[in-house]
Amino acid sequence: MAGNSSPLIQTLTPERWVGWSMDFIGAGYTGLLVKNGRVMRTLRPGRHFSFAIPLLEQCELILVDSKVRNLEIVSQGDFLSRDQYLMNVSLSVMYQVVDAKRVALELSDPIAALTSAVKDSLGATIGQLRIDQLTTQGRSLIRQYILDHAEASYTLGFSIEDVRVSDISFPQTPGIIRQVEGMSARQEAEHEAVLKMQIAQAGRPEVLPPPVQQVNIVSGRNPNANDPALGATLEATSFAIEGQSPVQDRPTLAPTILAQDSGEAVARLVHRSTGAIAILSTTPFTIGREPSNSLVLDDGLCSRNHAQIIKMTDPQGTVRYQLIDMGSSNGTFVGGQRLAPHQPFWLTSGNIIKIGSQEWAFEA
Fold first, then answer.
1. Would you call 232 helix, strand, or coil by DSSP?
2. Which three-class secondary structure state does DSSP give residue 143?
3. Which is higher by pLDDT, 310 or 176?
4. Is the pLDDT of residue 94 over 90?
5. How far apart are alpha carbons 127 and 280 in whole angstroms?
């Protein structure tokens, strides 16, 4: 909401004497003289005279506050960092009207439009930063990004004068991505303790529980073998394998299940931002916000039972997979195209599936 007591826009009806009116525009305001619904003149601060034919011409004087104003924006877990942590960000935006006509007459809710534009820039900034960057230099990076990308606000008739980030915090949440098997209570507590230590080392003494990611990784190799390639994969995703010591200073997650090499390719979904892997180990493989799903997405744009993937074998013995949208509110997209509800779509390797704000690559 705006942190100013005076309204941004005021509409006045000038008092006239034999058709003439004298109007005074105060300092810091811009006036719009509207006659029969059309803008006749833009009035700068000072004294102005206007004439209207009585009973035939209806005049209004619209005053737009062109002084520098303040807009307070407080998010409630609206944004995801690059490494998939929910963030709360509070900031103060100093803005000024530069196009009075557009703000007063072309926007039904100017403040809401400005807030939306700033939040879009804020989300884009946080999505490019990791949690360690946000805790150390997040304020300066967010401020600079919003100031450098103020074009959207300018097209609405506003200029962004300055931005002050007052707080960056971590809301309490059960997680962003979690599969049905989940973590044990002890493993979640260990994960939380390690993350709190990392945040404290980065300059913040205390955080609330972060999101948890858990996926399965398929490998036909011996999990106890010292394989450099496998080790590189685990380092990139920060997972610990049962039977091995977890990497120091990294969260200890639930053990990863290694599938035995049966000679049959196992399909999977790979998160495009984090590289997290979800194995299509069951059929139907269900996706949604309900904890009973095979893949649980804590995403406000994801339905409780959003979609499912079914494994099928055609008459030639080829294993194929169908993606079905279960009548979700915001739809399921493949390659940018929205699927018809309850209509099967045959997946091919490389298809990009978007559910809510999450994008997954299908591999088979």
1. helix
2. helix
3. 310
4. yes
5. 27
